[in-house]
Design brief:
Elements: E1 2-5, E2 15-20, H1 45-55, E3 59-63, H2 73-82, E4 86-91, E5 105-110, H3 125-128, E6 134-139, H4 142-154, E7 163-167, H5 174-184, E8 189-190, H6 194-199
Length: 206
Amino acid sequence: MFYSIQGESSFAGRPCVLVRLTGCQMRCRWCDTTYSFYEGEWMSRAAVVQRVAAFGCPLVELTGGEPLLQPGARPLMAELCDAGYEVLLETGGGVDVGGVDPRVHRIVDLKCPASGEAGNNHWPNLELLTPRDELKLVLAGEADYRWAKRVVEEHRLGERLPVFFSPVHGELDPAQLAAWILRDRLPVRLQVQLHKLLWGAETRGV
């Protein structure tokens, strides 16, 4: 758990408490938080809420790993909402996002082919998302871009909610991704990881 500047999504740039939960069923090729697979400490929901309160920040995000693998994640988010926090959920897209408190902003990371995990996307999630939610696709190259473009167009996602295309750090030039988006006039937003620009790609706890 740490206090930092939110690095992604439409909330990027805002101070945020990030609660990183342990465990993930996916093994994305470019994962930058592999330590979350196994590291961490057991805490009760009450202890988490108490520690969050100590930061004095109104914005909280549950992330991972895959936070929805933890059975306490959904009730924890509801408790944080009840306490008056603005709550974000960043999920890997392989777990059903149904049953999450409707006050929570769900940020779903749909896996592209180069991740090695596109076969594990939970596609019914796309029909559950609302305008207050967000969809993120991390792209490693042109093949991923073509795949993501097709998904956005076939599901008319740009008309339904904010969609973010993010380049894999160190693999896809953000300027190249910008050129493709502009060329195709896609209704998506280009996103770079702000925290990596500020503190570098190897720094943890930011």
